[in-house]
Amino acid sequence: MQFAVRTxxxxxxxxxxxxxxxxxxSAHPPQKGSAHVRALETxxxxxxxxxxxxxxxxxxxxxxxxxxxxxxAHRTYRFGTLVRxxxxxxxxxxxxxxxxxxxxxxxRGEGAIIDLSPAAARKIDMIKRxxxxxxxxxxxxxxxxxxxx
Length: 149
Prior knowledge:
Blueprint: H1 2-21, E1 41-49, E2 71-73, E3 82-87, E4 93-100, H2 105-109, E5 112-116, H3 118-123, E6 132-140
Parallel strand pairs: 1-5, 2-4
Antiparallel strand pairs: 1-6, 2-5, 3-4, 3-6
């Protein structure tokens, strides 16, 4: 089932890249990656990251949590939604797929809008601080279905 999830994520990325190229011409050449993809929705808030104690546990989507993958939890985004997360302090970005619900508790009370896997948190250099001010940009909506392995 992991293959199916990876395949659907890969297909989603190809669709995003292909449809972005058809969106119209520009005076600037297209950039590599998804930096030029228009966001479907944007949020600004704080990001936190999962504790190692969640490794191997089942997420709300039914998928087993693997902190080495670029995945995340959001309270309302549908499962499978592809989100670009940008650390506003250093402008580093990572793309994650929503597979869980959260943040909850103290982190949410302190302004957290997304929980990142440790791998995603490392990519935007927020491990040391534990929390970072981020911008979320939805690149593709998920179908909301369970993402079991």
